[in-house]
Amino acid sequence: MQTKKNTTHTPGPWHINQVRNHPFVSSVNGERIADCGPDDDNWLGWESEEQAPANARLIAAAPCLLAACLLALEKLETTGEYPGIARELADAVTKAEN
């Protein structure tokens, strides 16, 4: 399965920043990409205060994770090895790119 190589997301790397106890993810240029916590000290709707920084770490890693998936998928498609893993990677890339 061929995947599209041109992405439209904000280029990485992405970084985790924090104001008070409010983590957020931003681009290298400072553009805010994702807020990962509440705007105030009300954690209503969040499982725990530990969840927000964990979400920020996962989101900040997204450009690197996508690049790694694309690289692995290209290798698997070239060799024809591990077709099940290639399908899983292709599905993950499709979710990220569409």
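^ that was protein a. below is b, sequence first then the tokens
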Amino acid sequence: MTAVPTLDVWLRSRSELVPDELRERIRFLVRDLLDQPASVESLAEIANLQLSALLQTGVTSREVALDLLAIDAIATYALELAASTGGDLGVSATTVMHTIAHLMDSQESHHA
């Protein structure tokens, strides 16, 4: 059985072409998970938590663009990890998208 790398090791293996500022923001957002084994669930959860926190601020200007890019990258990494570990990519993608849709719905109801 292959050992699961830490999230730090896994991210480093994929971030070679990522711009420095974006790579640093991604690492900042997942900083509490870097020493943990890389997992689809933890990446999806942190992406959803960060998106929820960002939506709660109500800020929609360019100042949050880097955060949005980093959150998108983290969600994408969750799906990439699911695909690379033999997980059910369809189920993972559906779960991530439903969670995002739920966040958006709850955000709209707060502003209605």
